[in-house]
Amino acid sequence: QVQLQESGPGLVKPSQTLSLTCTGSGGSITTNYYYWSWIRQPPGKGLEWLGAIAYSGSTYYSPSLKSRTSISRDTSKNQFTLQLSSVTPEDTAVYYCARDLGVGVLNREYDYWGQGTQVTVSS
User: Fold this and answer.
1) Among 24, 62, 114, 121, which one is least packed by beta carbons within 10 Å?
2) 72-109: per-residue pLDDT in tens?
3) What residues form DSSP beta bridges with 84?
4) Which residues contact 98 (CB under 8 A, 6 or more apart)?
């Protein structure tokens, strides 16, 4: 029922800010009690959780990336965004947005995923 779609530039230069948007359909990002997450997968590596924004608007971030990560939302467009600053080639990955099962807490389990979008950090 819920569909998610990532969008944004596929190429970002080192030291710049990576910006991606996830657009939802079939379900509101303000609906109790879900969380909306960003996850990435570098080439040949596993999934890495970056952060999430709750139905309430509260945000949560991976400790390892918190200093560089910002998640926000536009409820009028049913969108939430990821900004990752000061990127390096190590940030190259497929980036996904997904709905966390939530129920008031971050479960790190997801029932709906976007298709993912490749982001390459290179000069």
Assistant:
1) 62
2) 999 999 999 999 999 999 999 999 999 998 877 888 89
3) 18, 69
4) 4, 36, 37, 39, 110, 112, 113, 114
